[in-house]
Amino acid sequence: MLDNITLYWLTDTAASSARLYWQNYGASGLTTLDLPVGPSVFPHELVRSPKIWAERAYSDLVYFNDRIPLGGHFAAFEQPLLFTQEVRKFARLVK
């Protein structure tokens, strides 16, 4: 985590990396996609999206897992093994 923060600090890119959050402030949060999607909802995520939201937003919902034991908003950094397992589970289902 400190490596990530240092990278943003030294390259002066923290503001540009937060642009996505600023632009979507106040948005409904539902985005529709017509491609294979496989959300993994980690227990300490900022917003824990229920499966019904995913079913409404994604016409090709291939994989959904909200029973992951650890991790949060930065799951790839906090729990790299669990994150990798989730990506692989989804990828196996996409043809």
From TrEMBL:
Record's protein name: Epoxide hydrolase
Entry keywords, A to Z: Hydrolase
Family: Belongs to the peptidase S33 family.
Organism of provenance: Streptomyces yaanensis
Signal peptide residue numbers: none
Alphabetical list of Gene3D superfamilies matching this protein: alpha/beta hydrolase
Record SUPFAM superfamilies: alpha/beta-Hydrolases
Top-level taxon of the source organism: Bacteria
Keyword NADP recorded: no
Entry keyword Cytoplasm: no
